[in-house]
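REVIEWER CHECKLIST
Item 1: Sequence provided? yes
Item 2: Single chain? yes
Item 3: Sequence as submitted:
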Amino acid sequence: MNAFGGEGWSDLRSRMISAVVLIVVGGVDLIIGGFPLTLLVALVSGLMIWELARLTAPMAMLDAVGLGLGAALCVMIEAAFGGITFAFLVLPALALTLTPRRDARLAGFCALALMVSAHTLLALRDLGGIAGILWLIAIVVAADTAGYFFGRKFGGPKFWPQISPKKTWSGTIAGWVSAFFIGLGFWFFGPGGWELIVLSPLIAFAGQMGDIAESWIKRRAGVKDSSALIPGHGGFLDRFDALTGAAVAFFVLSPLLGWPTGA
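Item 4: Structure as written out by the authors:
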């Protein structure tokens, strides 16, 4: 739920507390890497697939649990064998596409994006080290934070009111600008090349599109949040939709960076 527009500040405290917990848990696992990080990514991926299944087939509770567990297992197996094992990335997407649900093809596409992003994050940590994955996360966090504050402060025309009525152009553009400075910083201080300056706003835009896609699914489902698992943020899809979009974009653009992702 990457807010870059809207009114009111009542949710800020709970958002901040949840964000601190997520940062601490995620930060520790990023530093350790290896199996703890794989387990965390698998758990979060499974929860997001569970939320996606519930949004598109709310009455099939056992189906959603099975899909979530299966997705987590697929991430673990794919990580254990190394490289990109397309069968395990595609299986959750096929399962959502072929089971009875609303917007089955859209759900399948989103599930594939979730699995690709899980693979990309793990591969980037293993092959690109801390600097690479911190760059990706920093873009998403900076764009989200800048969008949240600038959108609420300045308001203005809506970015895509039919799908996500709270988001504004002021917040959207603020996200691009903040991502540009993230790329500039990573280039200036040495962890990355000059191409990060150009690619960072593109990654931020992909993250915003990930947020838009999730908002579309929720709007069609008639719900505000994907779940209530994270206070102030809704569900894991709400919190990591932008990171999913950003990771998929990085997977596609990674050859330009010279950072392999196993593709």
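Item 5: Key structural point noted by reviewer: The chain is about 75% helix and 5% strand.
Item 6: Recommendation: ____
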